[in-house]
Amino acid sequence: MICVPIVGSTMDRARKDLDACQKLADIIELRLDLIDGFDLPLLLKEAGKPCIVTNRCKKDGGQFAGTEEERVEILRRAIELGADYIDIETSTPGPLLKSILENKGGVKVILSHHDFTRTPDDLIPLYDLMNQMPADVLKIVTYASDINDNLTLFRLLARARKDEKQMIAFCMGEKGEISRILTVQQGGWLTFGSLATGQESAPGQITAATLKHIYRVNDLKLETKVYGVIGDPVSKSMGYLIHNKAFQETGWPHVYVPLLIQNVTRFFNAYEPYLGGLSVTMPHKEAIMKAMDRIDPAAERIGAVNTVVSEGDQWAGHNTDYSGALKALEPHGPLKDKNILIIGAGGTAKAIGQGVVDQGAKLTLTYNRNRDKAQELADHLQGKLISIRDVDQAAVDILINCSPVGMAPNTNDTPYPARLLKKELVVFDSVYNPMATRLLKDAQAAGCVTISGVELFVHQAAEQFELWTGKPAPIDLMRRVVEDKLAPQQ
Ligand SMILES: NC(=O)c1ccc[n+]([C@@H]2O[C@H](COP(=O)([O-])OP(=O)(O)OC[C@H]3O[C@@H](n4cnc5c(N)ncnc54)[C@H](OP(=O)(O)O)[C@@H]3O)[C@@H](O)[C@H]2O)c1
Hints:
The chain is of the alpha/beta class.
């Protein structure tokens, strides 16, 4: 279930939000501590869904400023009014908590515990204590300072499943995002989703629309495998949009999530049983190789893995920047003996450079500041190396920008002078934000064939999808998802 918290701040706003959340919410939480001058009978009447009434004090992350007696009195009133659920914290003074638990009538009580600073290594002793009280649902929410903290909550949910106890459990914070998505799959009773960005009732809350329509949390089963992108940062990644859409379209019953991690080995060892496959982004493309049982030969030559694939009980590392770039170039003829000028000599240049050299192209790389690093790559790929200032001296049939030049916000910059662009050139920009970079606009004006960074992004993602699922990727749909996401930024 998805629970949408109604966070006020006025009655007027709360009533509008109740109306707006009807299509998203399975259950609603009325956060009375956040709604000024709340009219509880009216809110309950207009809720339209089962309701949890919560009146949180400051030490538990709420805003209620009165005494504990006053706070609990409001919950007592919710019981009299016949609310479906009330939420009361373990930190409530004993006699008040006892009086609620012993006089709850037909109303179900959620007994909740919040830790806004950390996740203890073992939550079972706390669960055992809470489970001795006559509450209907237990809620334990902690703060994740490490991605592995989510697993502590999964272990707690496994215990509650075994006991057939209704349990709400997940981690807060950016590193807890995965447990907000997977808690229902792990047997949790519900997850919270905000009505809109900016209306979160706790740190790290995802919108209800994203939980429902992108992650499809209510459809995930215990056997659902977790796919995702590991990196640092991952908050800007579009992978969760494109892959979940492709999974949904093709009936692949799994989920794709962003995974913010620092230590690849620690993460991989702990999460391996849950994983179906991974995308890998900066800075982990080299470190992940140590965790693989097998590395695809092209990824081995590149020295970087951006895709982890499950092969029975083994893990294989691939590089789909390599194969995706070749797919994007494929419609424009064979690469054998073509003069290819790559601007930049970083990770993308390494993968695409290896791809075109493997196809028999003649490669020239450019350097900007870091000549030694670029020389090493040029030697490895047996290509030429020139300074970016000397690009007018290079023979070029295909120009590929693998530098960040032209990327937002510096959209007026171009890595290649417009006067050198001739209509026989194919110009491929790996930058995808904006979709139409200054380089691509100049190239179109000169009559060149152009390939945008979206093609690279979509093809490398499609290659990942096919490696994971063995099914053809819905590539047009994947392209539409990326274009829709990037369009407002144009
Ligand atoms: N479409 C996709 O799916 C996709 C995938 C991956 C990457 N990309 C794009 O590719 C770009 C590069 O990514 P990366 O991972 O390869 O980055 P990277 O490893 O940091 O390498 C960037 C390279 O660009 C060079 N460079 C920087 N400023 C330059 C300038 N003003 N003129 C010439 N060269 C310059 C750097 O050379 P020096 O060190 O000498 O300065 C370096 O060799 C990203 O910005 C991203 O937009 C797109």
